[in-house]
Specification:
Distance between the termini: 37 Å
Strand order of the largest sheet: 3-2-1-4-5-6-7-8
Number of helices: 9
Radius of gyration: 18 Å
Largest sheet: 8 strands, mixed
Number of strands: 8
Length: about 270
């Protein structure tokens, strides 16, 4: 069991939705301090103010566009300065849009920004270079596990998150660095990310028929958050977890491991 008490957290996309609920829950469970990173400054400042009313001095807001490397560098350093150390990074920020004007930004946030924060986190935490170790949680999606023809760019970016995390965490990574890499695949969850899906599809005309034929039954936010808590407390480095339909979190690492073993035989 990994302890939450007195740990410091950096949460990207933390001003609203699942990110905000992660912050509330980990503070309730005894986290020492949380840094909320988000591009939505007004919402973020308001949220952190409300957190500090309940947990005085334990939350800070840092404006950050996770799709912009200069923003990431500045925000990461500010988080280190404000929190004094980083024990846990939750790479939660995401854009679910394959629309012509947003698909590239979606990739920058979902994929490149996540990689940047992960690598900076490893550098800061690694025990073989003087760090104290830590945990990096990368949020993927069930969209990485099946083919969603309305949002192939989003699916691809989330599958990249899984493969990146798995490849990075390959033994003896944890033994060498003391940094644990965990990946969560939440299913459809009742957050604003599920709103206006038609406007964010790669082909709006096709999407209308597709979504009419495939209804969405989102899980509750509380269920998805509880899954991340369970994964944090119990997950081995490199493990992949699933959170769907308000069921308890499920470790699906062996499914991927067996898949890779079978592919390796062919390769």
């Amino acid at each position: 069991m990994w302890d939450i008490k007195d740990k410091t957290f950096l949460i990207t996309g933390g001003a609203s939705g699942l990110g905000a609920q992660y912050a509330k829950t980990f503070l309730q469970l005894g986290a020492k301090k949380v840094a909320i990173l988000d591009v939505a400054e007004t919402v973020g400042v308001s949220f952190v103010t409300s957190l500090n009313e309940t947990y005085p001095g334990k939350a800070v807001f840092i404006k950050c566009d996770v799709g912009n490397e200069d923003d990431i560098k500045g925000a990461f350093q500010k988080a280190l300065n404000d929190l004094q150390r980083l024990d846990v990074i939750i790479n939660n920020a995401g854009i679910m849009s394959d629309s012509p004007d947003l698909w590239r930004k979606s990739c920058e946030v979902n994929w490149q920004g996540l990689v940047s924060f992960t690598m900076k986190g490893v550098e800061s935490m690694r025990t073989d270079e003087g760090g104290a170790g830590g945990t990096i949680i990368n949020i993927a999606s069930t969209a990485a596990l099946f083919k969603l023809p309305t949002m192939p760019v989003y699916c691809g970016s989330k599958l990249a998150v899984i493969h990146f995390s798995q490849s990075l965490a390959e033994p003896p990574f944890f033994e060498r660095t003391g940094v644990r890499i965990l990946t969560m695949c939440p299913g459809p969850t009742d957050t604003p990310l599920l709103h206006n899906l038609l406007d964010r599809a790669i082909d709006k005309k096709y999407a209308e028929d597709f979504y009419a034929a495939v209804p969405t039954y989102p899980q509750e936010v509380e269920s998805a958050v509880n899954a991340v808590v369970k994964m944090y407390q119990e997950g081995d480095c490199g493990s992949i977890w699933l959170s769907v339909k308000n069921k308890p979190a499920q470790d699906i690492t062996d499914m991927f491991r067996n898949f890779y073993i079978e592919l390796a035989k062919v390769i």
